[in-house]
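Anyone up for a design puzzle?
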């Protein structure tokens, strides 16, 4: 497509074809609360072996679903940003610069600490070199570690989802910029529908972390972002859609606790989409709903604020604590296990807070040089 025609299409899409709804808030505090719930679920999930037999175990063993909630939020926010950008000059330069500032520094700090700093500190230079030489650097550099059957060390295990988001940004962004909105809606719907089918029929041929098998959440968030700009429906209609999503999510929970299937993640993504829509609708009213007020609780908001570093580094923190906390306390039975979980959570959150204030936030301030004008 010629550049002039491309710019005209983008301008028309943003200005007329898919305007942002007037009632849609520019700033959505409840989203930090949703991130807080997601990261808390993931943290507890990675402690579930310590809490076997407790009242929490039936709940926290499903904490992995927090990653799906992160995907729904990412799909909604990124697709909305692209749609609202219109014919912004130097869009790709600004968009990807902002994305890289958000993802790359924390990602590369994690790799540095895992492969260089802590091995050299605790095991010596020679051991560090062995780890560096054995690392799948080509995959890590290009965010492809989720596509090949390589066994990642536990500390950098969470990077599989970062790789998925990175690939999504690279491939989905030009699609959103080029396709007319109605076709874009069909593209997102196709992505949402085919992901469970790929899980069903691609079993054994793809890695468990393959991007094609984890598109449900990103697609659901994108569908909501596109739908809000494509259909001038009243908020009451969107409330019914949110309720429908929550109902599907409840079906996913029931299926998950029974046996699960290739469609469980899809149903859960619909439920998380219902949670997202409910937050949007609650924030748009003159007085935030009870649901939004719950999501605005300060501990949840703070967990959501530091959620990226907390997600990226929590297993690394748990690993460092193993010799100094887990081994001594595990001899005290369940009381020791509860203490380990408490220390793990406090240390991971404290480390993420330090990173947020002294590493992430200063870097994110550089985004002001890449604003969409």
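Challenge accepted. My sequence:
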């Amino acid at each position: 497509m010629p550049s002039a025609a491309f710019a005209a299409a983008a301008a028309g899409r943003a200005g007329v074809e898919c305007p942002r709804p007037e009632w849609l808030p520019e700033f959505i505090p409840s989203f930090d609360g949703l991130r807080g719930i997601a990261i808390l679920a993931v943290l507890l999930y990675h402690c579930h072996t310590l809490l076997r037999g407790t009242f929490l175990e039936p709940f926290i063993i499903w904490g992995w679903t927090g990653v799906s909630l992160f995907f729904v939020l990412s799909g909604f926010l990124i697709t909305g940003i692209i749609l609202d950008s219109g014919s912004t000059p130097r869009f790709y330069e600004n968009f990807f610069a902002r994305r890289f500032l958000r993802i790359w520094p924390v990602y590369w700090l994690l790799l540095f600490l895992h492969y260089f700093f802590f091995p050299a500190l605790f095991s010596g230079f020679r051991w560090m070199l062995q780890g560096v030489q054995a690392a799948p650097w080509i995959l890590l550099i290009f965010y492809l570690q989720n596509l090949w059957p390589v066994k990642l060390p536990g500390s950098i295990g969470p990077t599989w989802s970062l790789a998925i988001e990175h690939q999504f940004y690279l491939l989905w962004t030009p699609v959103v910029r080029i396709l007319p909105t109605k076709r874009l809606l069909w593209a997102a719907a196709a992505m949402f529908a085919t992901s469970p089918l790929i899980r069903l029929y691609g079993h054994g041929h793809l890695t468990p972390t393959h991007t094609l098998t984890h598109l449900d959440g990103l697609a659901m968030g994108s569908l909501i972002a596109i739908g809000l700009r494509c259909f001038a429906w009243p908020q009451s209609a969107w409330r019914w859609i949110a309720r429908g999503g929550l109902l599907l999510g409840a079906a996913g929970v029931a299926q998950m606790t029974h046996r699960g299937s290739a469609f469980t993640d899809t149903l859960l993504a619909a439920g998380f989409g219902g949670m997202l829509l409910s937050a949007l609708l609650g924030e748009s009213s003159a007085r935030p709903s009870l649901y939004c007020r719950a999501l605005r609780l300060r501990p949840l908001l703070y967990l959501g604020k530091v959620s990226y570093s907390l997600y990226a580094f929590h297993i690394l923190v748990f690993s460092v604590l193993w010799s100094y906390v887990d081994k001594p306390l595990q001899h005290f039975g369940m009381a020791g296990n509860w203490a380990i979980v408490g220390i793990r959570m406090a240390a991971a959150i404290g480390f993420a807070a330090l990173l947020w204030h002294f590493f992430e936030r200063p870097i994110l301030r550089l985004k002001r040089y890449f604003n969409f004008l």
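A detail worth pointing out: The first helix runs from residue 3 to 17.
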